[in-house]
């Protein structure tokens, strides 16, 4: 089977999409979202809006079928026109709460824009490299489906299914919307991945490079193995020196540090969700002793694994 580094990496970030609400907004309307950890999204079902994202000088105009994904940490605002006020999302929800059916209505008595609002949740540590590699906003435009490009078919099909589910009241609607958005997120990242840019070398470029991409995928997929730099280099057909240099230039850190981050990320997930002892988790993420695991974990996270687990339990 052909190597697919992007799929191997996306499997590890544990993507979960969630639709917060279907919003019916009448002009004048608007709201702003301060930087948040999940990747927020807004999908225009009907009507139009202006999207203003920190780091982008001019507003972006979105129409029916357009999806905007804003990676975690980026503040943004949406509104019907440049003159409409943008209260915070929390202020808007205090005035116009989401009802039991997950629907929200807000604004004046002007033209209507309908949109799906939600977020893509990813394991923060595992997803850091991916999110950092994405632009301030990732756009999937419906009009691209009319172009003779390789992405037209999937865009047309997925958006058609989303449109059907938005307008139905059938049982399972919310679950299907969430899963369809999972697919759309992966497709959007793949489309961005396949378009070369003039940006400086980075993590996505590492995945595009056959040997370094294979190494990154290997470290994500088999992080618990007792890898050395030499053994990873040998698996991808490079000398240790050449591999280390190329990996550092493209990924931005050494292979050993990257592997450790993959292990710590998986440990964080297990500490949050699995009923395993610290010794069992240490073994699952590639450490021969609980002490060695705890030392590395504390160095990267700032607290030991036991304290990390207790903090998570107390916040539930």
Automatic annotation (TrEMBL):
- Protein name as catalogued: AraC-type DNA-binding protein
Upper lineage is:
Bacteria, Pseudomonadati, Myxococcota, Polyangia, Nannocystales
Q: Where is the HTH araC/xylS-type domain?
A: 213-311
- Keyword vocabulary terms for this entry: DNA-binding, Transcription, Transcription regulation
| PANTHER family reported in the protein's UniProt record | HTH-TYPE TRANSCRIPTIONAL ACTIVATOR RHAS, HTH-TYPE TRANSCRIPTIONAL ACTIVATOR RHAS-RELATED
Species annotation: Nannocystis exedens
Top-rank taxon of the source lineage equals Bacteria
Pfam families xref list: Cupin_6 (PF12852), HTH_18 (PF12833)
Q: Which InterPro entries does the record associate with it?
A: AraC_lig, AraC_XylS_family_regulators, Homeodomain-like_sf, HTH_AraC, Tscrpt_reg_AraC-type_HTH
């Amino acid at each position: 089977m052909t190597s697919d580094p992007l799929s191997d990496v996306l499997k590890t970030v544990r993507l979960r999409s969630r639709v917060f609400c279907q919003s019916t907004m009448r002009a004048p309307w608007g709201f702003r979202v301060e930087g948040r950890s999940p990747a927020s999204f807004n999908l225009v079902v009907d009507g139009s809006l202006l999207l203003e994202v920190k780091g982008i000088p001019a507003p972006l105009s979105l129409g029916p079928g357009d999806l905007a994904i804003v990676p975690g940490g980026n503040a943004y605002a949406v509104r019907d026109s440049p003159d409409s006020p943008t209260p915070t999302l929390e202020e808007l929800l205090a005035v116009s709460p989401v009802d039991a059916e997950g629907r929200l209505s807000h604004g004046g008595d002007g033209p209507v824009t309908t949109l799906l609002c939600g977020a893509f949740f990813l394991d923060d540590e595992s997803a850091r490299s991916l999110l950092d590699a994405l632009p301030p906003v990732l756009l999937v435009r419906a009009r691209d489906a009319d172009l003779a490009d390789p992405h037209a078919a999937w865009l047309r099909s997925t958006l058609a299914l989303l449109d059907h589910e938005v307008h139905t009241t059938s049982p399972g609607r919310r679950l299907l919307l969430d899963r369809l958005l999972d697919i759309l997120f992966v497709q959007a990242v793949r489309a961005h991945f396949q378009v070369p840019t003039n940006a400086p070398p980075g993590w996505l470029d590492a995945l595009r490079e056959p040997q370094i991409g294979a190494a990154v995928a290997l470290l994500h997929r088999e992080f618990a193995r007792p890898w050395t730099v030499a053994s990873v280099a040998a698996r991808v057909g490079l000398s240790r020196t050449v591999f280390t240099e190329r990996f550092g230039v493209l990924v931005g850190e050494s292979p050993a540090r990257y592997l450790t981050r993959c292990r710590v990320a998986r440990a964080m997930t297990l500490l949050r969700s699995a009923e395993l002892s610290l010794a069992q988790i240490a073994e699952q993420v590639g450490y021969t002793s609980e002490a060695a695991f705890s030392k590395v974990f504390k160095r990267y996270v700032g607290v030991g694994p036991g304290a990390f687990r207790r903090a998570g339990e107390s916040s539930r």
